[in-house]
Design goal:
This protein is an alpha+beta fold and about 450 residues long. Helices cover about 55% and strands about 15% of the residues. The chain is built from eleven helices and ten strands. It has a five-stranded mixed sheet with strand order 5-7-8-10-9, covered by helices on one side. Strands 1-3-2 form a three-stranded antiparallel sheet. Helix 7 packs antiparallel against helix 8 and helix 10 packs antiparallel against helix 11.
């Protein structure tokens, strides 16, 4: 059961208790007032009954008092006096009223007497003689206490309803604002100090609104960046065609430029499609691969390219890493990160790749010896088309690391970047090893 349930339960329970106590108190007050009024009006008669009974018990014996009470009972229908012994039994053998009625008898209508035989008796006026006596004055009305109970219950119920309905109305306004496109709205501030399921729902709404806002902003930035990236090669193609028309002798160079720009467009569109499929969560074909072998092949290709540029790649691995994966996206992820490290490591240095499999997880560290990434840019390097302030932004479309991150997330993995103390960038990729297709 949640906290809201217990709050509602306690509130209704308290309301029932208050109502029960109020009604019971009203009835008791009404009855007690009637008894007190009757005892006050019957004061002389009460004194006579008690004095006579006390005199008979003190001077005579219990039998004489029993005969006296019997004669009074025959005359009035109900014996006006009860005589209780030390065990609480009536001396005349009559049936006693309920205990709560005996307890309600006022002090001026009861006495304690020691009889001639030495036994102690308690004599009291019969409750029916007090409650059945009519008076000219009306007893206190039940309307006042019952009205008080009704007003209190209505007020308490209204307070409870307001307590429950207020945050729900705030949530409704937040949802309406979000439906109109205002994703800046937040529901938590209107919850106050609540600590229950409704407050948790408000926090969930705020997280949802923040995520939607971030995704929409990311889509807008992506659309802007795609438009910008497409405009550049298209502009160069148009310029090449214009130069070709003006100078027919340069047609061969014009065609070469057009072919180069069309290849760039094809590469850009291919990477955008890959990124779109990964972000949409499209599941490709799963196959069981040895990821250590896959990394070794990628590292070998990267080493061949690196040595041609005066750089090197060193790969070392420990353990086996078999897993059900989508081969193409995962290969793109490893390849993009490794080639990125080769591109930016300093000339004459080595890119270190360390892979290890432990506790059903593959961990890969890729360390270059380049200039690193400014601290302000580190949180953004996995965003599509991100352009840093260093030489890393000179080439490419800025989609490689974004594709790598989405590919790792599609396999429930992660990727993070950190600057090395001595210079360079460390990329750490972690991937859970799954042996069943339904877990990939």
């Amino acid at each position: 059961m949640g906290r809201l349930f217990w709050k509602s339960f306690a509130a209704f329970w308290l309301a029932l208790i208050v109502a029960g106590v109020g009604v019971g108190s009203a009835v008791w007050v009404h009855r007690q007032a009637s008894i007190d009024e009757a005892s006050e009006r019957l004061g002389p008669r009460i004194s006579f009954w008690l004095d006579t009974t006390e005199t008979v018990l003190a001077a005579g014996n219990p039998d004489a008092a029993r005969r006296l009470i019997s004669r009074w009972g025959q005359r009035h229908g109900v014996p006006p006096v009860l005589i209780l012994d030390s065990q609480g039994r009536d001396l005349t053998g009559n049936r006693l009223p309920p205990p709560h009625e005996l307890d309600s008898i006022p002090a001026n209508a009861r006495r304690s007497v020691v009889a001639a035989n030495g036994q102690r008796y308690e004599i009291m006026i019969h409750p029916e003689r007090l409650t059945h006596e009519r008076t000219d004055r009306k007893p206190p009305s039940l309307l006042v206490p019952l009205s008080a109970v009704l007003i209190a219950s209505v007020a308490f119920s209204a307070l409870l309803a307001w307590y429950v309905a207020k945050p729900i109305r705030a949530l409704r306004r937040a949802f309406d604002a979000a439906a109109r496109g205002n994703l800046d709205v937040r529901a938590t501030p209107s919850m106050g100090g609540r600590r229950d399921e409704i407050a948790d729902l408000g926090q969930d709404f705020d997280r949802m609104a923040a995520q939607l806002q971030a995704q929409i902003n990311a889509q807008r930035r992506l659309l802007h960046d795609v438009s910008h990236e497409l405009r550049s090669p298209l502009a160069r193609m148009q310029a090449a065609m214009g130069l070709g028309r003006k100078n027919p002798a340069q047609l061969e160079a014009t065609f070469d430029r057009l072919e180069l720009e069309s290849q760039r467009l094809d590469t850009l569109v291919g990477e955008l499609l890959t990124l779109s499929r990964l972000e949409a969560g499209a599941n490709g074909h799963l196959e069981r691969l040895d990821l250590m072998e896959l990394l070794a092949d990628i590292a070998g290709d990267a080493q061949f390219e690196a040595r041609a540029k005066g750089r090197d790649v060193h790969f070392e691995s420990t353990g086996e890493a078999w897993s059900m994966v989508q081969a193409t996206p995962l290969q793109r992820a490893f390849e993009n990160v490794i080639r990125n490290a080769v591109k930016y490591t300093a000339e004459g240095t080595t890119v270190s790749i360390k892979a290890s499999a432990c506790n059903s997880e593959l961990s890969v560290d890729i360390i270059d010896q380049g200039p690193g990434v400014p601290a302000d840019d580190l949180p953004h390097i996995f965003e599509p088309f991100h352009r840093g302030g260093d030489e890393r932004s000179a080439q490419g479309f800025g989609l490689g690391l974004a594709i790598a991150q989405r590919a790792m997330k599609a396999h429930q993995g992660s990727i993070e970047a950190n600057n090395e103390p001595g210079g360079g960038l460390r990329m750490t990729l972690r991937l859970p090893l799954q042996n069943h297709a339904d877990k990939a």
